[in-house]
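Listing S7. Sequence submitted for prediction.
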Amino acid sequence: MFHIGSHLSPSAGWLAMGQTAQAMNASTFQFFTRNPRGSKAKAIDPADAAALVTFLKENGFGPVVAHAPYTINPCSKDERTREFALQTMADDLVRMEHLPGNYYNFHPGSHTGLGAEAGIALIADTLNTILKPEQSTVVLLETMAGKGTEIGGSFEELRAILDRVELTDHMGVCLDTCHVNDAGYDIVNDLDGVLTEFDRVIGLDRLRAIHINDSLNPLGARKDRHARIGEGFIGTEAFGRIINHPALRDLPFVLETPNELDGYAREIALLRGLRKE
């Protein structure tokens, strides 16, 4: 089944997110666990969370994705920043157990001068501290554009993190189309080659979700600026190949394009129109 959705705000409540997604003809969605540029998290209403779980099951939704706030950086050279990331992510994983069996995605972070190897070790240390054998949530490393000291701009860096994580069954990867384009992976002209490389380095069995975004930048720009579908350097034709590719077509796709809800609904309709069943 084709599961496509967008990023939604949980401010109106968890069940409301599912209802909003359904109104846009979406069958998955992504939401921030807390203020994306802060630290505060709204208290969870267990009844509201349970209602969302029932709603998703009754309406044939695919896995949904929670996104960690942008403010966390588990590989910063600043110890307090790393501790903030650890505490925030640990709390988020506890909260995610109200929505069992879904995904928690985060940006690996920027090493801020420590070097990639040290940064990778710090990210893995954080994951080894917060992951618990009994959790039902799979934590996703996001592919990044590789700007500045950002970690995750290459498949090899993500693999290096995964290799250091002890509870490896709780880990996966989310591929962001804008990010990989900006990192230099040619998904427009060589999608098969990029996925073959991903499989060689990481393994396609690790790929759990797709952030489906066009890019305002050409291949390899390392800038990370999202565009609406068909309005960037990736283009509508390439997205048709992406959503229909045998290795990707059954994964949840989430839009993170610069849009309001009506714009997301139009993009969902566009992508559904490109889908070949």
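Caption to Listing S7: primary sequence and predicted structure tokens for the chain studied. The mean pLDDT is 96. The CA atoms of residues 187 and 193 lie 8 Å apart.
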